[in-house]
């Protein structure tokens, strides 16, 4: 058995496992950066896996499936992108060009699986009314399994026809298109960060944004260094805020006591 076949099998199994893991006790997680890293390790190109996974992770910032809404599957996109980039040697442009549409396409499959899970839920309810709890528990396992099969099916198709198709397409695509995809790959993470900042109290902590910009743009400090400084600043802000809250609570309590003493004296 060749190494490519082993890699194909492991990638398909990984697509199913991370889905089950995300719906269960979550030993790993389903973040794009994690799936990309593991896929890169399997494909023997950890650096590419981290790069692609990190790119899709930044895209997903600020995106959440609230109320059961279906969102792009960035974890699957990172898995697909890393596999194709490592297998074809095409880099980030192919990962964005193929991985992101697959992640968007997964929305339709996600909706379909959720519809099928409605029947599973009703059957579980029927068994619960009959006090057949063992049957209820067993049929309840179909829900996570269907979600896992969804990703396994998609990944199997990608593994079977993806590398050849991508290589053929990239051979005829003009250079300016791939350059544009690389530029888009650098812009989309900014969009994810902007979505995240939209829900954060940026106006209140605008000073932190300016400081981070100066460190990055002018002092050329790496992102890890800025993250460490940001963590330290957040601890300081938290402690100062906690101290101020305790001081306000103490003043309020003293005022209440004084008011109570005055009423008693009268």
Automatic annotation (TrEMBL):
It is a multi-pass membrane protein. Coiled coil: none annotated. GO terms for cellular component: plasma membrane. It is found in: Cell membrane. One of its GO terms (biological process) is phosphoenolpyruvate-dependent sugar phosphotransferase system. Its main location: membrane. The keyword Secreted does not apply. PROSITE patterns: PTS_EIIC_TYPE_4. Keywords: Cell membrane, Membrane, Phosphotransferase system, Sugar transport, Transmembrane, Transmembrane helix, Transport. The keyword Membrane applies. The chain crosses the membrane at residues 50-71, 91-117, 138-161, 181-199, 206-238. PANTHER family: N-ACETYLGALACTOSAMINE PERMEASE II COMPONENT-RELATED, PHOSPHOTRANSFERASE SYSTEM SUGAR-SPECIFIC EIIC COMPONENT. This is PTS sugar transporter subunit IIC. The lineage of its organism: Bacteria, Bacillati, Bacillota, Bacilli, Lactobacillales.
